[in-house]
Amino acid sequence: MSRYDLAAKIATLDPQADAIQICHLLAGYEFPWDITRALELALLRTFCIPSVAALLDRTGEFHHHTQKRYDDTGIIVSELFKWGYEDPRGQAFLQRMNAIHQHFPIRNDDYLYVLSTFIYEPIRWCNRFGWRALSPVETHGIFHFWQAVGRQMGIKHIPDDYAEFEAYNQAYEQTHFHYTPANQRVADATRAMMVNWFPLPLRGMVNFGIPALLDPALLTALGWQAAPTVISRIATTALQQRSRLLRQLPPREVADFFVDQTIHSYPNGFDIADIGPPTMLDALNQKGRPNSN
Fold this sequence. Notes:
Blueprint: H1 5-11, H2 19-30, H3 32-46, H4 50-59, H5 61-64, H6 66-83, H7 88-101, H8 108-129, H9 136-152, H10 162-176, H11 181-195, H12 200-209, H13 216-222, H14 229-248, H15 281-284
Helix pairs in contact: 2-3, 2-6, 2-9, 3-8, 4-11, 6-7, 8-9, 8-10, 11-12
């Protein structure tokens, strides 16, 4: 295979009819690391919406079970990318997510915004730091994938147009991004979790560098200080150098989905019945334990 064979294959697909296949190839083969990082950024952006942060702060999941909450979200998203929302396994995880969400009073507008971050943050990240830019087929495939997921979540008023939904994403941030202590508490807990992924000698440097790629509006809404300009330049340059290096490497032939890796909260593997807030697991599983991973 040549480096661009998968890109050429995706170019022959239909963005709407083949959205599942497009996202499978992007998340598992073309940009697995980049999409995971972009979705982490999307997570931080949702904390900038006070109504979202207040709910997360009130449940305590990002304070008491930060890693599990992160991992459960990553697992659900990864299972959807790996299997699609039409496959029985993908459907099971989508239904699990819906069952969890039903326990909380989440506004439709907040659902819409969070959904939009899952579309546009990976696109923006890959176009900025990926080893190649995404094509219109790929960007619209991502749009149609999450549009279909959103409809199965019962989200109302999802735009039918790519540009219209992106405009909604940008307008929602301009209107709703502002600082609250809850924003910062949830974000600080997540930042501490990310820092703890690294060996002890590196944690101070990682903590210092986390804001390096974040925009001023996000930093203000989280109550975080910007990284020094030199640190931001180093981080940007390092990611751009990484993209140039990846262009020279052979294409990935073995998938690298998030669920294919060792997951912090589930080092021995997971069952779909493990997914969800610990205090809700009995209620979520009362209808019977689903099939194992």
